[in-house]
Amino acid sequence: MTRKRPVAFSVIVPSLNEGAMLSMTVESILRQTKGLSYEILVVDDGSTDGSTERYKRRTHPNVRLIRGGGLGVARARNFGARQARGEFLVFIDAHCRVSPQWLEHFTEVLSFAEVGMAGPSFTKLETPTPRGCGMRWADETLDLCWFESPDENDGYVVPLTTGACQAFRRETFEALGSFDEGFTRWGYEDVEMCLRVWLLGYVVVAHPGITVAHYFRESRDNYEVDDLDVTYNFLRMIYLHFSAKRIQRTLEAVKQNPYIRAAQDRLVDSDVFNRRAQMLDRRLRDDEWFFQNVNGAVGHRTLTSTP
User: Fold this and answer.
1) What is the C-alpha to C-alpha distance for residues 290 and 302, in angstroms, rounded to an integer?
2) What is the distance between the alpha carbons of residues 184 and 124, in angstroms, rounded to a whole number?
3) 145, 157, 139: which is closest to 307 by C-alpha?
4) Strand runs (DSSP E) across 55-184, as ranges?
5) Are 130 and 147 in contact (CB under 8 A)?
6) What is the pLDDT of residues 192-246, one digit of tens each?
């Protein structure tokens, strides 16, 4: 039996009822990823709109369809990663267009041993401006604030980058423990991974030379997202990584959220406290260090001057 050769890049595209957006995304990746060793894994997470049917027929040798089915974002990404053959894993939403040489630029920044995760610069799908490159938490509510994308063409260290597109070396992704499968369908699994990257001793980088045009939904029109589930994910993230004092400050800041109590009740019955203990044993930095030295820093940091 001939064993399939590994590839350099595995681009993993979870999809649920994305309609024509999915084919737009796949075609964009194919168009901008020529001359490289790569594969595209479309993870169908239970679509009912027929959008993934064309990929059953292997219309392109580099595109594979794998069936998930109700996994949610974190588990669908991990499911794709387990079947991927690439040295580099790139997770991207199924409603994006990518820029030329995007994977080559990811290789540039991921070649630094300290880089745990890399992200691109983002625009809205319908307009090339404004461009955002990396994010931070603005205040105790953990509302996200974008950095304006700089003109330079090198990677910059940033606190956070959105899960719309995140890239890893495979070995680093596995060392990080992959995405936390305790999260519900959608919400905070991406920024939790960013925080985990920092606490485990790596850095997060955004590359302004890569542009991903992303469809930012005003509301969920392809599948339902439950507000209680999103609140649960929010609490899971802070209970995984924050000190007791910071947890209390965050809860005070978001106390108007009507789902907090129910989400806390659900959290008690989860594995979050076991996972918290595991994280405390492994991490090299704590949340106080992150907020003082990373999230509290103004602007970008060059990749060669990480904290």
Assistant:
1) 17
2) 26
3) 157
4) 63-67, 86-92, 96-98, 115-124, 127-137, 144-148, 156-157, 165-169
5) no
6) 999 999 999 999 999 999 999 999 866 556 556 789 999 999 999 999 999 999 9
Summarised one tens digit per residue, pLDDT across range 81-105 is 999 999 999 999 999 999 999 999 9
- Per-residue burial over 103-117, b = 16 or more CB atoms within 10 Å of its CB, e = otherwise: bebbbbbbebeebbb
Q: Which pTM value belongs to this model? A: 0.93
- Going along the chain from its start, the domains and CATH numbers come out as 7-222 (3.90.550.10), 227-284 (no CATH)
| CA–CA gap between residue 56 and residue 273 (Å, rounded) | 41
User: Cα dist. 29→39, 40, 75, 94, 207 in Å?
Assistant: 10, 8, 22, 11, 17
The answer to whether the beta carbons of residues 211 and 133 sit under 8 Å apart is no
2 secondary structure, DSSP code: P
Q: Are 162 and 192 in contact (CB under 8 A)?
A: no
Taking the C-alpha atoms of 92, 93, 97 and 102 in order, what is their torsion angle to the nearest 10 degrees?
-10
What letter would DSSP give residue 160?
B
The amino acid at residue 103 is: L
Segment (H or E) for 76: helix 73-83
Give the 3-state secondary structure of residue 49: coil
List, in sequence order, every beta strand (DSSP E) within 2-56.
Answer: 7-15, 38-44
Rounded to whole angstroms, the Cα distance separating 127 from 292 reads 34
DSSP 116: E
Which residues touch 197 (CB under 8 Å, ≥6 apart)?
A: 116, 117, 176, 203, 204
